[in-house]
Amino acid sequence: ISKSYMGPILNFIQRYGKFALLILILISLYRIADIVMGVMANIFYLEKGYKISDIATYSKFFGVFATIFGGFVGGYCSYKFGTMKCLFFGALIAALSNLLFAWLAVSPISINFLIAVITADNISSGFAGAAFVIYLSGLTSIKFTATQYALFSSIMLFLPKLIAGYAGSWVDIMGYPYFFSLTALLGLPVLILIIWISKVAPVKNWMRYNFLNTSISNLYTKPSSKAEVSSQIIYGEKFKILSKKKSWVKIKTSYDNYVGFIKNNNFKKKFKPTKKVYKLKAKIYKKVKKKFLP
């Protein structure tokens, strides 16, 4: 029981130390702006005077495709520009999209306005959601992936759902324009947290490929040169960093998914091959040993 429940928690604390609590706070607040606003969205559409058929068409049907599109863009940008940058941008546009609802609340009824706001909100939500999933995946240990991801997902929804339960009372007190503006302001602490965490405890190379820059390197089962060699990787081969321990890094190769340890000075982030080998194995000779007739 202790391994099943306490193991994943202790593993997370050991890997992130004093920054573990800070990361958990970020997880619990990241989706607060759109979740608190989202519980009042459909009620707002109806009270504003939009038809149920229009709400269903643009929010529940076309909105799904906008969310999927935002998710694809968020995933691609996270790979291309890095997790923390996209995490910040996702939180920013998710908060800013709430201001569009504040604008819609004081604007005359227009289907075009409704379509524009719903589309922007769903794209931003999809982008932020994809970036956040990638961030959570980078936080998990390969040893406790399922348990830690389930824990993070629970923390992610607990506080926003709790606060969202009082959203109706807020609307009664201040009205929709101020309520939507307030939910946008709820996203500001998240932006500050992301900037801080990106400096002290970033997820940098875990979701991006690295390349071996030595001719060949042994892949050890433990972080020791005396440990058993499970495999070898060659120059230019791609791998992902799973964790770091002093002068060793735990990696997972991209081709055959081998997991093991290598020295942390045996790789680099960027690699541009001059030629490519299209066979699984190819022999390298210092001199030509055999000659064949044409």
Care to describe what's here?
The structure is a single chain. With 294 residues, this protein is an alpha+beta fold. It is 59% helix and 12% strand. The protein has eleven helices and seven strands. The chain has helices at 2-16, 20-29, 32-38, 41-48, 52-81, 83-106, 111-139, 145-164, 167-174, 176-185, 188-200, and strands at 210-212, 216-220, 229-234, 238-245, 248-253, 259-263, 267-268. Strand 5 (248-253) and strand 6 (259-263) form a beta hairpin. 30% of the residues are buried.
Quick gist of this model?
It is built from eleven helices and seven strands. The chain has 294 residues and is of the alpha+beta class.
Task: Describe the SSE topology.
Layout: H1 2-16, H2 20-29, H3 32-38, H4 41-48, H5 52-81, H6 83-106, H7 111-139, H8 145-164, H9 167-174, H10 176-185, H11 188-200, E1 210-212, E2 216-220, E3 229-234, E4 238-245, E5 248-253, E6 259-263, E7 267-268
Antiparallel strand pairs: 1-4, 1-7, 2-3, 4-5, 5-6
Helix pairs in contact: 2-8, 2-11, 3-8, 3-10, 5-6, 5-7, 6-7, 6-10, 6-11, 9-10
Estimate the global geometry from the Cα principal axes: elongated
The Cα radius of gyration reads 25 Å
Number of strands: 7
Q: What helical percentage do the residues reach? A: 55-70%
Kindly report the spatial arrangement of strands forming the biggest sheet. 6-5-4-1-7
Oligomer: single chain
- The helix/strand series, from N terminus to C terminus, equals HHHHHHHHHHHEEEEEEE
Structural class: alpha+beta
Can you give keywords for this protein?
294 residues; alpha+beta; five-stranded antiparallel beta sheet; two-stranded antiparallel ribbon; 11 helices; 59% helix; 12% strand; elongated
